[in-house]
Amino acid sequence: MRRAPDGSSVPMTDRELAAVRMRVGMVFQHFNLWPHMTALGNIIECPIHVQRRPRHEVVAEAEQLLEKVGLADKRNTYPAFLSGGQMQRVAIARALAMRPEVLLFDEVTSSLDPELVGEVLAVMKALADDGMTMLVVTHEMHFAREAASHILFLDKGRVVEAAAAEEFFENPKTERSRQFLERYNR
Hints:
Largest sheet: 3 strands, parallel
CATH superfamily of the largest domain: P-loop containing nucleotide triphosphate hydrolases
Number of strands: 7
Order of helices and strands: EEHEHHHEHEHEEHH
Distance between the termini: 42 Å
Number of domains: 2
Helix content: 40-55%
Shape: globular
């Protein structure tokens, strides 16, 4: 939806919606990598075919992204031969290859072995430190405290509290937030 001059909501046209989608990247909890493509192939597919960027440019950028997520040595590896943490980092590189303004993360660590969570969170923290705008759905409170500028705390699908990250963790305003944080701080 977009706002009309009178303030009412107006549905976006297909073209407007496509333009918004081109500026937003999403990383899912189950990776959604194409199993018949290598790590590099997964990263270059959309920039070449959707954005119609030159292959040589996209491959060079994809190799830099693999380096950034710590997987330069896995460029020719198929998803079946990658760990869950490695697949998630390829998925992050794939989203970054589209040059989004905003990255959305949907519980990207929830299906990972606990030993692999740290490598994915380290990449996400580096992105935050580099200034990437991210909207992250997570139960990783230590990560949220370190990386977030703002917190929206939801309970049963409703926003219970919205605050600056430091304010949320140090001085929660709602009883529900306090209850949650008491369990988190144990």
